[in-house]
Design a protein that fits this description.
Layout (H helix, E strand, L loop, with lengths): L1 H16 L6 E3 L13 E11 L9 E4 L2 E4 L4 E12 L3 H17 L2 E2 L19 E6 L3 H10 L7 E11 L5 E2 L14
Length: about 190
């Protein structure tokens, strides 16, 4: 699911930037500090966290009159770094601006948003992706790029919400036919 989401986002960014397919790369931003990197936009997963507000879902699923035990899904937030290293610094800045523009005009993606000619198919393993720009102060930015190799490149971080992960392992749950209350009066 995570790989499907990142690949879908890569294709959306590539289409919006109007660059060649090999110029939008899923890879660690650490590779940017290495020599002989191809120019382009780099998408890097820098953090994953559980969406705690969606944690309290039921453990019993009722379908077609039958009850089944199933662990509730985990909803994840991904933090994606979009870093740009094109042949010129100004080209990197233009592509950074266009990427921000993309997620400003399309804050969320779902199957119903991906219709029409030229639309990139939304992965069947996903329900919805919601984008939120992460504001980082200089200290946070310094820590992030320090971990990634120490050099700064024009970049932006987005929090991508609503990635649902669920292993489909159901077990039959017995039907509740009676309820008994034991009351003891002292």
């Amino acid at each position: 699911m995570i790989a499907d989401a990142v690949e879908f986002i890569r294709k959306e960014v590539r289409a919006h930037l109007g660059v060649a397919d090999d110029e939008v790369i899923i890879n660690s931003a650490r590779t940017l500090v290495e020599k002989d990197n191809p120019p382009g936009a780099y998408l890097s997963l820098v953090n994953v966290e559980e969406e705690s507000t969606l944690r309290n879902l039921p453990h019993v699923d009722r379908r077609l009159g039958k009850s089944q035990y199933i662990e509730p899904p985990v909803f994840l937030n991904m933090y994606l770094l979009f870093a740009f290293e094109f042949l010129t610094y100004s080209t990197s800045l233009v592509h950074l601006s266009k990427t921000i523009e993309l997620f400003q005009t399309k804050r969320w993606f779902a199957p119903e948003t991906q219709t029409g000619p030229g639309a990139i198919p939304f992965p069947a393993s996903l329900e919805k992706l919601v984008f939120e720009m992460v504001n980082m102060n200089f200290e946070e930015l310094n820590h992030l790029w320090g971990v990634l190799g120490g050099a700064y490149f024009p970049s932006v971080v987005y929090k991508v919400r609503m990635i649902r992960v669920q292993f489909d392992d159901t077990q039959p749950a017995p039907e509740i036919t009676t309820i008994r209350l034991d009351t003891v009066i002292p």
